[in-house]
Amino acid sequence: MHPNFDKKVDEALSRISSLVRKTPLQYSPSLSERTGSEVHLKLENFQVTGSFKARGATNKLMILLKDQPQRIITASSGNHGSAVANAAAQLGLEALVFLPETVSPAKLNKIKLFGAQVILSGQDSGDAETAARKYAKENQLSYLSPYNDLDVITGQGTTAAEVFDEKKDFDAVFIAVGGGGLISGVGGYLKQKISNISVIACSPLNSAAMHHALSTGKIEKIKHLNTLSDGTAGALEFGAITFDYCKTIVDQSIVVSEEEIASAMKDFIGEHQMMIEGAAGVAIASFLKESGQYRNKKVLIIICGGNISNQTLVEVLK
């Protein structure tokens, strides 16, 4: 990690704090009792766009603002698109978001509501990224990666800066992983502040690009199946800086099945009376799977978002 990474994150937090929400850090009585751990939840499902992605996008766009970009081009499975669309609207910038054809209707509508233009392309976020990069290159516009960008990563790290401001003695943190922007930011910050903290990467078995890369030591094309965790689904960009960060930050990488994700989500929604999306379910399910290792320990779970379609919610609650 960058030696002054925590300072960069603190600077990002002061930069974006007027446009994003400081989200609650909440003790979970039900998860604590069930596992014998002391479990705290960082509730990014209460973030302005319903996801932590608002942080990284806002940080990057505020930095780009001084170059007066004509148009912001990005790609997303949904949450990053909402984040860019929202920040662009607040800052008076024009945004074009490439999304996979499989994007959840709820996420698509949210992006359009924030006023961004949308192009649907391909079957997953990896396909949408390829199309967006091609468009940006052909039109000589800059492309904003959802995770392969240090300003985006330091923005996501502000999640951890808020946690550390309130509570400083965690033994482990569980974080859902797609492209790795959140775990690079949060894990990188917490490792510089709490030297002995364990950072656990959590992936859905059906689409586990970073888990595969960490296991084999290189980014490769793998097969992706449908998953409840649409926020982490899809290919990992070759040469992604997040892979190098994850190699130094991640202490353990776990995969969970669709059944484990659905079960964790259903129980959580019932016990906590709050909405979460599949990616947050991945982090909870991973903790439950490994909870035996964390009895009598202080555990942080990043509830990364709450953007779930009615259709998926019904599936989960069944």
The total of helices stands at 13
Task: Count the beta strands.
Answer: 10
Tell me the β content: 5-15%
Strand count, sense and barrel status of the largest sheet are:
6 strands, mixed
N-to-C span? 43 Å
Mean pLDDT, rounded to whole units? 95
Strand order of the biggest β-sheet: 1-2-10-7-8-9
The gyration radius over C-alpha positions equals 18 Å
Low-confidence segments, given as residue ranges, are none
Shape designation: globular
Q: Provide the helix percentage.
A: 40-55%
What class would the helix/strand composition place it in? alpha/beta
Summarize the helix and strand pattern as letters.
Answer: HEHEHEHEHEHEHEHEHHEHHEH
Characteristic key phrases:
6-stranded mixed beta sheet; 4-stranded parallel beta sheet; 318 residues; 13 helices; alpha/beta
Summarize the structure in words.
With 318 residues, the protein is of the alpha/beta class. 47% of the residues lie in helices and 15% in strands. The protein contains 13 helices and ten strands. It has helices at 5-16, 29-35, 53-64, 79-91, 105-113, 125-138, 150-166, 181-193, 209-216, 241-249, 258-272, 278-290, 310-317; strands at 25-27, 38-43, 72-75, 95-99, 117-120, 143-144, 172-176, 198-204, 252-256, 298-303. The strands form two sheets. It has a six-stranded mixed β-sheet, sandwiched between helices. Strands 5-4-3-6 form a four-stranded parallel β-sheet, with helices on both faces. It is globular.
